Amino acid sequence: MDKLKTGRIIKVSGPLVVAENMDEANIYDVCKVGAQGLIGEIIEMRNDRASIQVYEETSGIGPGDPVYTTGEPLSVELAPGLIESMFDGIQRPLDKYMEAANSSFLKKGIEIKALDREKKWDFQPVLKEGDKVSPGTVIGTVQETTVVNHKIMIPYGIEGTVKEIKSGEYTIEETICTVETSNGLKEIIMLQKWPVRKGRPYKTKLTPEEPMVTGQRVIDTFFPVVKGGGAAVPGPFGAGKTVVQHQIAKWGDTEIVVYVGCGERGNEMTDVLNEFPELKDPKTGESLMKRTVLIANTSNMPVAAREASIYTGITIAEYFRDMGYSVAIMADSTSRWAEALREMSGRLEEMPGDEGYPAYLGSRLAEFYERAGKVVCLGEEGREGAVTAIGAVSPPGGDISEPVSQATLRIVKVFWGLDSQLAYKRHFPSINWLNSYSLYLDRIGEWMNKNIASDWTKLQIEAMTLLQEEANLEEIVRLVGIDALSEKDRLKLEVAKSLREDYLQQNAFHDVDTYASLDKQYKMLKLILGFHKEAERALKTGVYLEKILAMEVRDKIARSKYIAESEISRIDEITTELTSEVDTLISEGGVLDA
Ligand code: ADP
Ligand code: MG
């Protein structure tokens, strides 16, 4: 500790501590505060005065108490052991920390390492003596869980030739490789550290063009997100934000999930901690935790830890991206995070901006979302990795004109607007198709035309047009009644209704309906719009609309969402049935039953 410089506390205000005599310290340095050594981070420096946000309860410390700076920024530990872990906002392992915090022996300021130091991992080298290495080079792998193969990479700043490389069981602090560099031998261990507020380096950023398929029809078809993109899910309480995030964690085609929970309700995070391990990974049948890192801020934790949590989360996400994986990070809810920012800003007595949020709310949010992206990773192998960031926002009263929603929407390119009225009608997911958007739609459309079906975009536009027309037609119906509409328009209303109920609505808790592949989505969309076309054909020859709407095949169309993935060719059979049923109607001459 003698290398640490000592300052003195002059003021304590909740989680904020001001100390003087801190001229050796730098902004964002981690400090040990008070005799107990509470962990804090400098968030403002004025001359020799440091404002420190403290990540632990500050009762019991006061003016005159010492403050030591570690001279290091807030960092996370990166190594095998991350997957399946549950951390708090500054990467303290929740189970161990809670155990220690509750025991009567250990008190505040307890230092528990984020990752296990004793556990041995089976390291399998992929390089040999004499191989050249640079930052990002994969030197070997560790099978971390049944599904995650953890790649051990050369840390930033080291370049040279492998002098020795080992194989077998090692802890994350034991040397597994020695590298001869221009300034001597460097020992490589599995453990790396990285400052949370700084994005991890990569070779080049790519334009993301591949969809991050979620299996949720309203998202994939109408408001898709790309691998490496960002999306916001604003919605009032109970609209379905958490269910959307869970569905994407489960079904999104990503290899790693980082879930940052900033609890909305008192015990919501406890629910997450209990529920997440119960979620089954549909791809492997095992617990979803086998490819998940969980970061949770329970409501009894100090606000400051919440502020750090999204950066801790995205740093871990970037680390797995650097291995060449596709990673999804969810933050639920960023509004709770923003409130922590607001509280700290208030205590710093900064000039408040909109609704009391600091003026830098937008830039802080951007620092999170802009670390999403698709990249060519460091290292010679040319691996490509992606981080997709999805943030829930819970605007008070569901009104998205408030600052956090607005700041988020200025950054992300996808907006899934959850609607309390739809949720009330139990239309789930309650994503409002009239005001949601995805700026990736054109690019993904091209991908879909090439990879799924050449008429994908055509169908997608046709369906959205019908949904928009429905809104206009309903307005007319409200004013002058349904009889004012032509049969053609009434048919449109029926098809739009079918799109809403049979396509957009998707039950997260139904075994089959919970997920739809892109192929299934295509077939379903084609079927529903095929009905429109066939019905128009019948109308033209004089068949009454009532007869068309009473066709038996309609029930099959409505139930097509429950057709299992392994049997989706049955959807094509319904299309054939549809055509022949319409043929029969036409041949009957289209007269109503007498
Ligand atoms: P929020 O996080 O916005 O407060 P939740 O995600 O907890 O809301 O959703 C509230 C409830 O809405 C869920 O408990 C569930 O009953 C229902 N719900 C939301 N989305 C769906 C869905 N896709 N399928 C079925 N039910 C849903
Ligand atoms: Mg929620």
TrEMBL record:
GO cellular component, one term: proton-transporting ATP synthase complex
Transmembrane segments: none
Keyword Transport included in the entry's annotation: yes
Keywords recorded for this protein, A-Z: ATP synthesis, ATP-binding, Hydrogen ion transport, Ion transport, Nucleotide-binding, Translocase, Transport
Alphabetized Pfam families for the sequence: ATP-synt_ab, ATP-synt_ab_N, ATP-synt_ab_Xtn, ATP-synt_VA_C
Domain ATP synthase A/B type C-terminal residues, every copy: 446-548
GO BP, one annotated term: proton motive force-driven plasma membrane ATP synthesis
Role noted for this protein: Produces ATP from ADP in the presence of a proton gradient across the membrane. The V-type alpha chain is a catalytic subunit.
Protein name: V-type ATP synthase alpha chain
Native source species: Clostridium amylolyticum
Lineage: Bacteria, Bacillati, Bacillota, Clostridia, Eubacteriales
